[in-house]
Amino acid sequence: MTVSLDNGPVVAMPAWKRWMRSPYARHTGFLVGAGITVLFVFVALIGPFIAPYDPLATDLQNVLQPPGGEHLLGTDRYGRDIASRLLWGAQASLFVALAVGSLSLLFGVILGTLAGFVGGWTDRIMLAVINILLAFPGFLLALAFVAIRGSTLTNVILAVTLAYTPRVAIVMRAVVLNIRPRQFIEASFAVGVSTPTMIWKHVLPNCLPPVIVVATVSAAFAILAEAGLSFLGLGVQPPAPTWGNVITDGRPFLISDPWISISAGACIAVVVTGLNLLGDGVRDTLDPFLRNQTGARALK
Amino acid sequence: MQDGGAVPNTADGNPSASTASGSRLSVRGLTVQFAMPMGIVRAVDNVSLDIAQGETVGVVGESGSGKSVTFLSVMGMVRQPGRIVAGSVELDGRDLSQLDREELRGIRGRDISMVFQDPQTSLNPVFPIGKQIVDVFRAHLPISKDEARRRALEVLDLVHIPEAKNRFDSFPHEFSGGMRQRVLIAMALALRPRFIIADEPTTALDVTMQAQILELLHELKQEINIGLVLITHDLGVVARSADRVIVMYGGKIVEQGDVRTIFYEPRHPYTVSLMRSMPRIDMVRGERLHSIGGSPPSLSGLPAGCAFHPRCFLGAERPKCRTETPELHDAGRGGHRSACHYANELELVSTDAPKVGEVVARAGAQTTGEALLEVRDLRMHYPAASFQVPWNRKVVKAVDGVSFSVREGETLGIVGESGCGKSTLGRCLIRLIEPTSGSIAFRGSEISHLGVRDMRALRTDIQMVFQDPYASLDPRMTVESILREPFEAHGQADARTTHKIKELMAHVGLNPEHIERRPHEFSGGQRQRIGIARALALKPKLIILDEPVSALDVSVQAQIINLLKDLQAEFKLTYLFIAHDLSVVRHICDRVMVMYLGRIIEAGDRDTLFADPRHPYTKVLLSAVPLPDPDKERARAHVVVPGSVPSPINPPRGCHFHPRCPSAAALAGSMPADELEQLADGGVLPKPCVNAYPDIGAEADGHVQACHFVGVDNQNTGTRGR
Fold it and tell me: From A184, which residue of chain B is nearest by alpha-carbon distance?
């Protein structure tokens, strides 16, 4: 029996060192995005504990205070502390983002896999439905849903999920169609692997990276949509502290006291940018096919 | 070579080419480095070579030997992160490596041009081929469109594109692979360059196409006095076409010399090993192939000293080979040079060069077993497109009425060119694809109608090894999870599975300690070993091997073939070996079936079939495979058939092979007119060939074939036609 020599790379270094060498550590966008996202999650979790005031407590002696002094970001027209409202609001935003991200991921993956893997008429019908849903602007779809079902946090989440599931599904379907004819799928069938196992062990792990990226974008969109719906008065009802409600509260005073809307708007902008950067970074680096072959090709 | 005679250079504004003695391309001390994430990689290391106008130089090497990069550098086409760090490339004394981009552009195509490996991707799909050739002229010469068109037609004629005028405005997808390669050669020839660099020009082509292209290159070299560089991994191609040979390994030239010297008196152990490890179509080399251990080194981790020493049968143990890098030195007559410290010792080593007609008898092949697999009239038809109007349905008859049996313990080879249905057949047998009709019986019980569950159970008995070791393993899984999968799929996973997996790995020559590694950490040969281990896991009776070695380097190919033979003996396996490489089939198979357009056209015992092919197509196939033996190869008669394999959507009426059949064409000349059929294109052929599909007959010795006129031999086989 011939014993082959081995010249594969030897992997034996501490985890942090390997991470430092990984493409993530060299991707500025990813690092910034990940930083913002981690900060956001952290703030959302501890916000209620570090908030200096009760976000609902009105203080009619101190309405429309400018930033600085006792109130870090000033107060609104009922004298509520903006900083506290934002800290509490982060929670709602995080909840909406997480819920929409994971729900649209879950439904999108299920639908996309079904369409891509089963194929045939299942695929054609599902594709038609998905395309019809995609034809509506996401926000409009969410708006219609909330207008019919009433404006609660749950409904906002469901509405944005409805708008974003088709996006995840269509990406998932495309990736599944790309993975399904690969030889390793055929090889696993040949050893007798059943279809559910196949999907679970081969198709999903190979398809998820691009889909997760879409899901992070849908999470970012969820934050925006929640704010947008609140702004229109269709989101979480006031006086609940959400970023969208804070913007709405500041609307009459945009000229005279702009800090109210600006501070909330800045929070949204930063978090959404962070999530998008994170998604892009993951997309740029996650694909093992791209990463391992570029070097080898140049040397053909 | 440099006869200095008429350089048939038309007034192409290429005056330097008409200098009397012919030009010379000289590379001196060329070193090319790539800045990679893992460090500096030296892809070409101090390479010096000369090519004269009018000669063909074969450049041989395995993947990563630096052969392509060397000639890309000559063309000034090495891109970032690559860089020429030392050396010069001189064309008649002019150093090309010092030229700026504009000046180089003037050289490319005009003085030196290149033909690439893949004719599918080297032509722009959105422009007609004529326009693409016209562009070559217009980029270099100040001539009118009409003039360029006239000249483009000229070069298309030169490469024998039939009816070039009518096909001038055809798009690349309207041509077959071989025809596209002709178009590319026409583009390379357009400006009558003095040198053409052909990088694996026939690797992507079928063997009959390869024969056509080699024939064409040979013809062109004689007609228009070009210096041809033929980069290839196939020693047969070199033996057939080259005047001189350069062997590369690890970025260096390890041996160079006249083609006969290299083949008959090699003075480098790598060359010797390469020759020995190649299976040959004209003989069987005992039971085992010589194999070079290990795999071609990656350029980023070249061994110190002589790069070949870890795999060398001479130098593995010698300190000098480990520490001192050998330089090229004279090793014999006529510029024969070798880079081996111990080149002299090789005089005593036989290259295993075979005598003409030598056939080693097989050592007791087990072809007497009973039928393990019986296939009757199997058909696999699928629609040619997904949306078709009901009144014009087109069907691809990938497999069209195939019957055969596989006996226990034997290796049955299925050979044929691309599109003949051999892979589809293999997949039908284990029902990765559902056959349209026909019966498949495994050990006497019908399996073509088994339900999903029963079929899964049967997969413990029939397994498959796939062609592409890079694509057939899930990149995200470790070796352990890949090999655990078959056990889990059949509920056999238990505490001992990890142990079994390690045993399996040891069996196929993998280090069991690498169980946690992922596929990308292995070389191609090692990955194919993983694929074989996966097929072996459930102890199957029958393994379908779908081109298991075609993606591997020659030296690694020999290892895998030997491994397959060892495993067969050890586990009493039966193989169905699907391949396009007839030499490999000759080596490993007991019986062989030849397929053409979905049907079996000849089948028989290996030695009988290879020694006495009866169907004209089999004869053509066999003669198209170049032998790695220059004298024998050049003395041999070549039957080169025109055209390419027709589309299985609309196979020719009657005998599928009749439009290309040299025998039918020759027979037609000697037959009375009432037995001939007039064809649409004006030719005449015997009536039966055009009208009836010949039944595959049965003969006493088990050698069957499907030709109406077998035995009616003709003189055509001796001609060297296009």
Answer: B472
**Which residue in the set B68, B295, B517 is minimally distant from A4, CB to CB?**
B295
Q: What is the pTM of this model?
A: 0.81
How many residues comprise chain B? 722
The domain ranges of chain A are: 83-286
Query: Which of the pair, B278 or B244, is modelled with greater confidence?
Result: B244
> Could you tell me if B294 lies within 8 Å of chain A, comparing CB atoms?
yes
HEC states along B319-363?
HHHHHCCCCCEECCCCCCEECCCCHHHHHHCCCCCCCCCCCCCCC
Q: Which CATH number fits domain B15-242: 3.40.640.10, 3.40.50.2300, 3.40.50.300, 3.40.50.720?
A: 3.40.50.300
Label residue B412 by pLDDT band (50, 70, 90). Answer: very high
Q: Is B490 on the interface with A (CB under 8 A)?
A: yes
CATH fold, domain A83-286, is MetI-like fold (1.10.3720)
Compare B123 and B355 and report the one with higher pLDDT: B123
User: Residue B231, SS3?
Assistant: strand
For chain B, give the percent of residues with pLDDT over 70.
91
B98-112 confidence digits (pLDDT tens): 888 888 888 888 889
Alpha-carbon distance B616 to nearest alpha carbon in chain A (angstroms): 35
Kindly give, in sequence order, each residue whose CB lies less than 8 Å from that of residue B44, ignoring residues fewer than 6 positions away.
B30, B31, B32, B66, B69, B70, B73, B251
Q: What is the DSSP string of B418-467?
A: TTSSHHHHHHHHTTSS--SEEEEEETTEE-TT--HHHHHHHTTTEEEE-S
Alpha-carbon distance of A132 to B637, in angstroms, equals 65
CA distance A105 to chain B (A): 21
Chain A contact set for B251 (CB, 8 A) = none
B 676-695 residues with CB < 8 A to A: none
DSSP code for B98: G
> Tens digit of pLDDT for each residue in A167-178?
899 999 999 998
Q: What ranges do the domains of chain B cover? A: 15-242, 252-348, 632-718
CA distance, residue B142 to nearest chain A CA (Å): 35
